[in-house]
Q: What sequence folds into this?
């Protein structure tokens, strides 16, 4: 450590200790030569750059799918054996799929770039006795920074001077209202949100003025620590990515096994090796579902479009499906579950509790006591309390239009007091015209009070607001409807109990008092008349309760993680139905142990806990990991800089689009344009529908491909001519398979999906029952095709080329009708999710047209080696193609119960 290294825990050290440790004078600041030395020592005051994902990197990622690698192998084999048409066709499929994925996923995560933009501002610094403005990245430890309301804090500062200073730290700490600052040190063990002697990089000064000494720059700041967490947070592969990877592994083994078996059997049976290798290529082409990557990508992109229409913008393609498996939503409080607007909801007076109606900035609301309207008339205690709240105030309301104030400016708490006054027709400007303000005694963090003096006739009215204990100490009387009385110790104790009760309900409590004096320089905090308590609340969003009920019905747990106080968190959780009134356990961040120190019972307790208050960014990461280790798919909501690491770590990061910071939006997978919690549930419903659709088209494609493999394999084993050529298989895979599969992929989904719990995250795309269905459907299609081929060769006595055309058409038509076997079990025969899907009928019409083109357009018919089968041939193909559909429908009805 050198002589000018910043001391540890600066918030707990005195101003003199800080100045001495950093070898700086408050009045003079640093000398320029010393600044140069420190800049070399500590480096620039900026965050580390994240390595930008290049377009080449994103493009290469599109080829890492095992199914795509299988296609590459099939194309290479085709080229190696001179099958140029087949090779080019497969290569085109690869290019199309890569292009779709590349364009869709080009917007990579830009978290660190956003963090850098947050810090690219200027700072006013005192050097060599003069205040000068410099780029923020030139700050060094020991610099004296001068601040005033509206300034962005550009480094971590230990405050040396502060006058009415408040800062908005919500992006960093999650605290929902501006925090008052002081110059005195605080305890060494207080959490970040309570370090009142510090200002932190990335926050903003909302009120007052002050000066502070830089104690940390760049990556050493609290913002820098969070940025390091964003780098450390590993982005989880989504369940869909994992499942398609598993499916790819299985397809590799199936493909290789079948190809080797057929080639070996043919060679052992005395067939030419070159012929059997060509047959192996045909099998490779048949076994790989060329359309699967394209259909999966398009289905997910369609899901992205649907979610965008419902105000959910998806940054990461595969995140669309992951939502369907979400079992736990970890949500912040402010703005997601609440309105993010302070509102006066209760006023405690000597005559009882008054309820205040209305929400947010609406200036319409009723005052009631036990359900009975209260007449707010001149001279009542309620009127006086509201008047003090309006007078002792530095905020302002904009014009009142349609019952709502607009362009409110100032501390949200003071704005709430003005809105409450407006509900009683007490407006600040007219009131100040009657009682002009002649003096203000700014809020003192030590005294915890603020006062204003107002001229009233020949005397002055003092309006005071502050913490209850402080106001009670400064009061000698208490106002009753019939007049003031002496304030006794028992009465004070009753008000302290009222204060605790209101705080326990999640209210932010403020005491108000007044007195009349003869001179404007009188002592404001002595001999006051106590009026009562004003309780403000960031009210819950009205639509959240039914949404949480819907989440619970869908088997999705909702857990609150907030930087706010436990009492506030518990109250909001109860109000929105997150917990019952009798189960409001709140785990404080200070009670959370590192994940490695948790025992089995402690882990279970944390997994079941519904509310966490005063949690840090690192603790959010630990809680996400805890739920993930327990097997849950975790969605995390957030809006601040402090949420960015957790948004990246979660299986699904969900950021707020309106109030969210750029950092949070760039780190998230999904951005909610309307900031509405209800949009998350809509997105989960879409995610479940998309997975169901993916499962249907995978089942459809694989059963079609299994049929193609079995047709080629069985014909090869019995030394018969191939009923279908490799290029014909490729045509089916790219045309008559893909379009019905696409139609399945964009279906509306099962309306009852949200009445069931989320599926097991470990469940593959294709479970055992689905593989059995693939085998059964594949066998049925195979038998119908081989039957048509045998009848064409024997009974119809047609040539091999015409018989191959009939088997090709039988296979194509059977695959088209097979799409109706994909309806949900238990659904109606005529009315179901498949027959009600207009895209399915459009796909069938298109595919039948393309089949006619393939047969009757000379150039394409020559490439595919098909001929006109004649009316009898068409009838044979059409009749045999219906067999798999009939079998499938009979089995659906038999297993419906």
A:
């Amino acid at each position: 450590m050198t002589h000018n290294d910043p001391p540890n825990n600066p918030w707990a050290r005195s101003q003199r200790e800080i100045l001495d440790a950093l070898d700086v004078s408050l009045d003079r600041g640093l000398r320029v030569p010393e600044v140069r030395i420190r800049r070399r020592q500590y480096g620039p005051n900026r965050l580390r750059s994240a390595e930008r994902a290049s377009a080449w990197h994103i493009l290469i990622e599109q080829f890492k799918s095992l199914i795509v690698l299988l296609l590459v192998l099939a194309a290479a084999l085709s080229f190696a054996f001179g099958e140029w048409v087949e090779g080019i066709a497969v290569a085109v499929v690869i290019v199309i799929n890569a292009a779709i994925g590349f364009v869709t996923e080009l917007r990579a995560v830009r978290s660190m770039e956003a963090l850098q933009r947050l810090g690219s501002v200027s700072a006013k610094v005192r050097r060599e006795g003069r205040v000068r403005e410099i780029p923020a990245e030139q700050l060094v430890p020991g610099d004296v920074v001068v601040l005033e309301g509206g300034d962005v804090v550009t480094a971590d500062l230990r405050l040396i001077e502060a006058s009415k200073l408040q800062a908005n730290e919500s992006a960093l700490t999650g605290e929902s209202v501006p925090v008052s600052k002081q110059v005195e040190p605080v305890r060494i063990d207080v959490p970040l949100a309570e370090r009142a002697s510090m200002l932190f990089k990335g926050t903003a000064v909302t009120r007052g003025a002050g000066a502070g000494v830089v104690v940390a720059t760049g990556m050493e700041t609290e913002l820098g620590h969070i940025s390091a967490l964003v780098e450390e947070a590993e982005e989880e592969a989504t369940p869909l990515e994992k499942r398609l990877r598993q499916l790819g592994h299985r397809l590799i083994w199936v493909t290789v096994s079948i190809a080797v078996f057929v080639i070996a059997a043919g060679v052992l049976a005395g067939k030419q090796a070159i012929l059997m290798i060509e047959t192996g290529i045909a099998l490779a082409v048949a076994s790989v579902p060329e359309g699967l990557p394209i259909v999966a990508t398009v289905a997910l992109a369609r899901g992205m479009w649907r979610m965008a229409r419902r105000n959910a913008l998806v940054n990461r393609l595969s995140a669309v499906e992951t939502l369907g498996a979400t079992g736990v939503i970890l949500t912040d409080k402010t703005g997601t579950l609440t309105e993010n607007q302070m509102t006066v909801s209760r006023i405690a007076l000597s005559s009882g509790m008054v309820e205040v109606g209305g929400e947010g900035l609406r200036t319409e609301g009723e005052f009631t006591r036990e359900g009975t309207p209260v007449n707010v008339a001149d001279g009542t205690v309620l009127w006086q309390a509201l008047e003090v709240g309006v007078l002792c105030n530095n905020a302002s309301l904009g014009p009142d239009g349609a019952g709502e104030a607009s362009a409110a400016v100032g501390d949200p708490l003071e704005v709430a007091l003005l809105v409450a006054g407006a509900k009683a027709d007490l407006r600040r400007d007219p009131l100040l015209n009657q009682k002009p303000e002649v003096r203000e005694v700014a809020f003192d963090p030590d005294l915890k009070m603020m006062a204003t003096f107002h001229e009233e006739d020949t005397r002055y009215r003092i309006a005071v607001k502050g913490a209850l204990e402080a106001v009670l100490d400064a009061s000698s009387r208490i106002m009753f409807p019939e007049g003031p009385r002496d304030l006794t110790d028992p009465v004070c104790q009753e008000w302290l109990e009222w204060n605790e009760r209101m705080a326990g309900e999640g209210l932010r409590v403020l005491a108000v008092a007044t007195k009349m004096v003869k001179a404007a320089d009188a002592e404001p905090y002595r001999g006051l008349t106590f009026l009562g308590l004003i309780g403000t609340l960031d009210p819950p969003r009205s639509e959240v309760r039914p949404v949480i009920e819907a989440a619970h019905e869908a088997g999705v747990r909702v857990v609150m993680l907030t930087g706010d106080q436990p009492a506030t968190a518990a109250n909001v959780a109860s109000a929105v139905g997150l917990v019952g009134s009798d189960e409001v356990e709140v785990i404080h961040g200070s009670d959370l142990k590192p994940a490695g120190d948790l025992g089995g019972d402690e882990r279970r307790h944390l997994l079941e806990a519904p509310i966490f208050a005063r949690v840090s960014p690192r603790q959010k990461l630990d809680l996400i990991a805890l739920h993930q280790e327990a097997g849950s798919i975790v969605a995390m909501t957030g809006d601040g800089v402090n949420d960015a690491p957790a948004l990246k770590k979660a299986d699904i990061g969900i950021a707020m689009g309106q109030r969210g910071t750029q950092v949070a939006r760039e780190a998230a997978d999904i951005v909610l344009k309307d900031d509405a919690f209800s949009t998350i549930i809509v997105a989960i419903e879409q995610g479940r529908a998309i997975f169901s659709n993916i499962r249907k088209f995978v089942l459809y494609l694989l059963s079609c491909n299994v049929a193609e493999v079995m047709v080629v394999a069985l014909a090869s084993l019995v030394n018969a001519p191939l009923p279908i050529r490799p290029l014909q298989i490729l045509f089916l895979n790219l045309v008559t398979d893909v379009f019905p599969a696409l139609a399945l992929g964009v279906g509306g989904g099962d309306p009852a999906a949200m009445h069931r719990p989320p599926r097991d995250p470990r469940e593959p795309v294709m479970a055992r029952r689905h593989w059995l269905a693939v085998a059964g459907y594949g066998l049925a299609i195979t038998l119908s095709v081989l039957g048509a081929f045998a009848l064409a060769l024997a009974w119809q006595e047609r040539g091999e080329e015409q018989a191959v055309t009939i088997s090709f058409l039988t296979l194509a038509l059977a695959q088209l009708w097979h799409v109706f076997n994909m309806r949900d079990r238990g659904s109606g025969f005529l009315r179901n999710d498949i027959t009600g899907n207009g895209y399915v009928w459009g796909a069938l019409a298109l595919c039948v047209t393309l089949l006619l083109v393939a047969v009757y357009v000379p150039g394409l018919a020559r490439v595919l080696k098909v001929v006109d089968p004649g009316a009898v041939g068409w009838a044979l193909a059409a009749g045999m193609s219906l067999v798999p559909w009939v079998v499938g429908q009979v089995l659906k009805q038999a297993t419906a119960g």
Notes: The chain has four domains: 10-49+112-232, 60-102+237-311+683-894, 313-338+541-675, 346-352+365-532.
